[in-house]
Amino acid sequence: MEKKYILAIDSFKGCLTSAEAEEAAAEAIKAYGNGATAECVAVSDGGDGMLKAFADALNGEIVTTIVHGPMMRRTEAEYAVTADGTAIIETAQACGLTLVKEEERNPMRATSYGVGELIASAFKRRCRKFIIGLGGSATSDAGIGMMMAITDKLAPRGGHFDDIAAELRDGCSFTLASDVSNPLYGPDGAAAVFGPQKGATPDMIERLDSRAKRFAEISARHFGYDFSNKPGAGAAGGLGYAFMQYLGADMQSGAELMLRLACFDSRITGACCVVTGEGHADRQTLMGKMPYHVMKAAKAKGLPTWLIAGRVDDRQALLDAGFTRIAAVTPADADTAEAMNKDNARNNIRNAIRQLIEEASTEEQA
Fold first, then answer.
1. Are the CB atoms for 95 and 139 separated by under 8 Å?
2. Which bin fits 311, alpha (ψ -120 to 50), beta or left (φ > 0)?
3. What would the pLDDT profile of 16-67 be if each residue is shown by its tens digit?
4. Which of 84, 105, 253, 291 is least surrounded, with the fewest CB atoms within 10 Å of its CB?
5. What is the C-alpha separation between 264 and 359, in angstroms, rounded?
6. Residue 320: C-alpha distances to residues 315, 316, 340 (Å)
């Protein structure tokens, strides 16, 4: 009987995309010589690689446009449009940390303006449904830049957001894909938790947090409600808050949404094994990250789940949670820079998959 492996591996951040990691794993499975097949399901929880993964799942057509990046420099950005007028937007395309050189990172200056330009571009293409991936931002502006761009691009000249609010809130739907549950401000807020990786100093964090709180208070007085403490408000530097407060967005688990749109439950039917993974697997993997949701779906159908990761900690906790086999693909003595090289990472994944297959085969024969 032919063995079918389902591959649903998240990106190895800063190294391999979901598709690249899965391609390497598929090569190892096919090369093993037991007639096995591998089916790849590109996945993302809303962060890195979200656009391609969601576009693949929904047969979206990639659109390229020019927006202003986090430092207000003109840059190319992509989004996808589906046949039913759904726009798929990865906010990092317009305000991502990778768009800013390390020495230039400054969340006091960085803006989400380009995200608003992406929304306006899709709106002008008659898109009225939006799936928004939040993650990897260089910003901590609570979405103020995005709201400015939406107003600049869609409101009548010299107008205000209120002039187009009804059309956006009532005529459109916004679904946010994110697994961040932080509020907008406070000790667990966007600036305090995510600011340091974006270049924020302690003084900047205090000022960013104060700015976000002030914006939320003004917005609450205007609307009569306050979403700044809703789970996910602090995602992508506060973009989650702006989407929910101003655009009536619905926050969903990015991993669950991805697997649902990819019809994952039906695709794993008849498989012998599901392979998932990420850059670093540990206890946090069990807090709603993509591999955990993949494992839960496989376990519900009685299928084993193999987990691969560049680095693995808390191995026993992961096994106890339900992962059947676990492999750290990076050799223990490997230099980090060498391990992050794409070719080396691909080769390490191939070796790890080959080893897992051999282990499973030996057990079956015993």
1. yes
2. beta
3. 999 999 999 999 999 987 789 999 999 998 887 899 999 999 999 999 999 9
4. 84
5. 26
6. 9, 6, 29
Q: How far apart are CA 284 and CA 40, in angstroms?
A: 24
Q: What is the pLDDT of residues 100-157, one digit of tens each?
A: 999 999 999 999 999 999 999 999 999 999 999 998 899 999 999 999 999 999 998 8
* φ/ψ bin of 291: left (φ > 0), alpha (ψ from -120 to 50), beta (otherwise): alpha
Which amino acid, 348?
N
Residue type at 83 in one-letter notation: A
Structural contact between residues 309 and 329, judged by C-beta atoms closer than 8 angstroms: yes
Residue where the block lists tokens 């924020």: 200
Structure tokens at 68: 């202003």
